[in-house]
Amino acid sequence: MISIRVDQNRCVACGQCVEACPFGQIQLEMDVATIGDRCTLCGSCISACPLEAIELEGAQPVANTMTDHRGILVWAELSGGQVKPVTFELLGEARRLAHQLGVPVAVALLGASTSSAASDCIKYGADLVYLVDDARLALYNDEIYAAVMEQIIRMYRPEILLMGATTYGRSLAPRLASRLNTGLTADCTQLAIDTEKRLLLQTRPAFGGNLMATITCPQRRPQMATVRPGVMKALPPDADRQGQVIVPPVEIPQTSKTRVLEVIQLQGDQVDLTAAEIVVAAGKGIGSAANMKLIAELAQLLGGVVGATRPVVDAGWISYSHQIGQTGKTVSPKLYIACGISGAVQHTAGMSGAETIVAINKDPDAPIHRIAHYSLIGDVIDIVQALIAELKKR
Ligand SMILES: Cc1cc2nc3c(=O)[nH]c(=O)nc-3n(C[C@H](O)[C@H](O)[C@H](O)COP(=O)(O)OP(=O)(O)OC[C@H]3O[C@@H](n4cnc5c(N)ncnc54)[C@H](O)[C@@H]3O)c2cc1C
Fold first, then answer.
1. Ligand 1 contact, 379 CB (< 6 A)
2. Of 314, 327, 336, best ligand 1 pocket probe by most atoms within 8 Å of the beta carbon
3. CATH superfamily of 273-393
4. What share of the chain is helix, strand, coil (3-state, %, to 5)?
5. Which residues contact 67 (CB under 8 A, 6 or more apart)?
6. Tens place of pLDDT for every residue, the chain, 394 residues?
7. Alpha carbons 342 and 163: distance in angstroms, whole number
8. From the CA of 370, how far away is ligand 1's center (Å)?
9. Domains in the chain: boundaries
10. 383 C-alpha vs ligand 1 centroid, how far in Å?
11. With a 6 A CB cut-off, is 25 part of the ligand 1 pocket?
């Protein structure tokens, strides 16, 4: 078991660890730092101590496992045999990071009848495809996929593993992190490289979206991050790109505790917000559920889809599948029209990547105007009705 210890001979009670502890778990008692019961072993105090008086006991020595990890691996997620766009987005990002590290980009592609998926991954930036094509992998299964992915990672030892923060990615990533005894940063909005230390700088919203935290995983490999669909940009596909397809010698488990019988697509009110080029989003400022019709009409006239803020979803004016923001979807359309939306950070976290943002709000000081390219100050219903009338004329 891992525990944390203060070396009483070295500690001079300088107090730097007290300031560094984000959980207020360190106190100075009798001229020495003492660590409280609710310490999470986050390690902030270890980095802060100038005298190296704080250490983790029971942690595995890692130096020998760090240097032989190389390259970036992306998990290729499939839906109906097709590679999901988030994989191409991650490949685009992986190429940028790989350029700084001077390493190749590989994809782990698990599924059945995946040959066109392999060539698609190469077109979008993969140098290597680790292909496990087997009927038993036709439908996603947590246990089986985790077992196969673990073997691939132990075999090829990537220093970075990127996965989509999708329903499956969010399920697979923590299983893998636990099996590999490494760290995982979920829902990253930005990735960068500290080239000197070869560290992945993983930035994501923290404390309810009120600040952005940059997280590193200095002592374990691979460094694992998930990124939501729509956050990163895919490179344009290049049909002339060359890559290598490798079939790794993995064992596919014969049994698992769960069996996936069938995958049934949800019917009805489902929208693909993440792929939409135009989003017309409703905020609480539209006033009532009845006014959602106007938002839908504007979206339809523009060939777009309807998005919403959390209060609109909570009020039952539209279903959760339309929610944009920290606890909803991330969108990056060409045009985003924010109708009666204040611009809280939890909402803008999901839409600030839009190319053009138009804000309609009666309050000229609403925060949404700070990120808007065009601000229309006035009553949202009047303005939406005027836009609808104008579009209908055309
Ligand atoms: C942990 C956590 C996660 C969250 N996740 C999300 C999330 O994923 N997505 C999300 O959206 N929110 C999320 N929230 C909620 C978020 O903090 C805000 O409360 C929410 O985004 C505000 O929604 P709104 O802009 O629709 O409403 P309000 O903040 O009430 O803003 C309404 C706006 O409409 C304007 N207005 C009012 N009447 C009119 C009118 N007649 N004409 C023109 N303008 C008008 C007002 O000036 C105001 O700016 C989360 C909060 C927390 C704590």
1. yes
2. 327
3. TPP-binding domain (3.40.50.1220)
4. 30, 25, 45
5. none
6. 678 899 999 999 999 999 999 889 999 998 899 999 888 888 889 888 999 999 888 765 444 456 789 999 999 999 888 999 999 999 999 999 999 999 999 999 999 988 799 999 999 999 999 999 999 999 999 999 999 999 999 999 999 999 999 999 999 999 999 999 999 999 999 999 999 999 999 999 887 667 889 999 998 999 999 998 888 999 999 999 999 999 999 999 988 899 888 888 766 556 778 889 999 999 999 999 999 999 999 999 999 999 999 999 999 999 999 999 988 998 989 999 999 999 999 999 899 889 999 999 999 999 999 999 999 999 999 999 999 999 999 8
7. 32
8. 15
9. 3-59, 65-246, 273-393
10. 19
11. no
Mutating to test ligand 1, I would choose from 189, 288, 291, 309 the residue with most ligand atoms within 8 A of its C-beta, which is 309
How many whole angstroms separate alpha carbon 91 and alpha carbon 86?
Answer: 9
Distance (Å, rounded) from C-alpha 14 to C-alpha 29? Answer: 12
CB 309 less than 6 A from any atom of ligand 1? yes
Work out the number of other CB atoms within 10 angstroms of the CB of residue 19.
11
Cα–Cα–Cα angle for 212, 213, 219, rounded to 5 degrees? 160
The model carries a pTM of 0.69
| Angle separating helix axes 115-123 and 85-101, nearest 10 degrees | 50
| Residue that is written with structure tokens 């709000």 in the block | 361
Secondary structure class of 330 (helix, strand, coil): coil
Read out DSSP for 128-186?
A: EEEEEE-GGGSS--HHHHHHHHHHHHHHH--SEEEEE-SHHHHHHHHHHHHHHT--EEE
Q: Which CATH class is domain 65-246?
A: alpha beta
CATH of domain 3-59: 3.30.70.20
